[in-house]
Amino acid sequence: MSSLNSTLSLNTTFVHPPFFFITGLNNMPYAKYYYVFLGFVFVVSVLGNSFVMFIIYTERSFHTPKYLAIFNLVVADLGESTALIPNLIAMFLFDSQYISFDACLANMFFVFLFVTLQSLTLTVLAFDRLVAICSPLRYHAIITMQAMAVILTAVWAYDSVLLILMVTLITRLSFCKSIVVQSYFCDHGSIYTLACNDNLVNSIVAKLNMVLLLYLPLILTLLSYVFIADVLFKMASWEGRLKAIKTCSAHLMLVAVYYLPLMATYLCEIAFTINPNARIMNTSFAKAITPMLNPIIYVLNTEEVKEFSKNIFKRKQKKKSTQILK
C-alpha cells in the first residue's frame, strides 16, 4: 500500500493512480486460445465491415437514407472492434495488463461510444422501417438524405455528450485503495467502484446512461415494430405482408444479435452468482461477435447487397476466364 501511495499523483483534491491493472481472465487455463479466437473475430469483422462500407460508397444505388444509417452502423461496428479487441489482445497475449490513467479513460470512452452508437443506430433504422411500411407514399418526403444526416448527427452528439459526462466524472474520484480492475477493459462500473471517496453521482450517471443509451433505444425499437405489426395485420394480402416482413428481417436479426447476448448476461448476473471469468467471457464474446455478424447478416438477408455481391463475383470470374483464354 505504501509503494502504491508513493506513486499516486495528487492534485489539490483528487488522488489519481499513474496506471490501472486489468485482470482479464484470471488464472484460467488456455485463456490465450480465447484471445487468439478474438483476434480471428477481429479480422473477420474488419474485412466484413470494410466490404459493406466499400459497396455502399461505390454503388450509387446505395446512396439512400437507409444505407446512410447502415453505413453509420458499420462505422460503429468497426469502431467498437478497433477500440476493444486489439488492446485486449495486446494486454493479455503479451502480458502487458497495465494501462495509464489517461489511456484508461480514453479506452472507456471509445468502447462505450461505439457500443451504444450501435443501439441508437438500430433505433434509427427501426424508424426508417416504420415510415417505409406505415407511410410508404410519404416515405421519400419524410426520410430524405438531409433528414437522415441531421438525425445521425444528433445521435452522435447525444451519445458523445452523455459519455463525456460519464468519463469526466471519473476524474473527480480518488483512488487510494486498489488499482486492480476486475474486467477485460477499462469498464466504467469496475473503475468507479474502486474509488475511496463518494461515488454516488457516478453510480447515478451509470444507471441513467444505461437507460438512455440501451433501454430507451430498445423500447423505441420495439414500439416501432408494434406499430409495424398493427399495419401488417390490417393488410389484405399475405403477399404484401410477407414482402413487408422481408424488408424488416435483416434489421430484426441485427436487433436480436445486439440485444439478446447483453440481456442474457445481465439477467444471469441478477439471478445467479457468476464466476468473474465466466462474466468476462460472456460480455467480451457478446461485444466482439456482434460487429462480425452484422455485415454477414446484411449481405445474406438484404436483396440489393446480395445482388451487388453476386455481380462483383461474376465480374471477377469473367475477368479470370478472359485472362485464361488469352
Q: How would you explain this protein's 3D organization?
A:
77% of the residues lie in helices and 4% in strands. The protein has helices spanning 2-7, 31-58, 65-93, 101-134, 139-142, 145-170, 188-192, 200-234, 238-271, 276-301, 303-325, and strands spanning 9-10, 15-16, 19-22, 98-100, 180-181. The chain is globular, with a radius of gyration of 23 Å. It has 326 residues and is mostly helical.
Structural class: mainly alpha
Radius of gyration: 23 Å
Number of strands: 5
The biggest sheet, with number of strands, parallel, antiparallel or mixed sense and barrel status, is: 3 strands, mixed
Q: Give average pLDDT, whole number.
A: 86
Order of helices and strands: HEEEHHEHHHEHHHHH
Proportion of residues in β-strands = under 5%
How would the global form be characterised?
Answer: globular
Helix content: over 70%
Helix tally equals 11
Largest sheet, spatial ordering of strands: 4-3-5
Intertermini distance: 76 Å
Unreliable parts: 1-12
Question: Main traits of this protein?
Answer:
two-stranded antiparallel sheet; three-stranded mixed beta sheet; disordered N terminus; 5 strands; 11 helices
Short description:
By secondary structure, the protein is mainly α. The protein has helices at residues 2-7, 31-58, 65-93, 101-134, 139-142, 145-170, 188-192, 200-234, 238-271, 276-301, 303-325, and strands at residues 9-10, 15-16, 19-22, 98-100, 180-181.
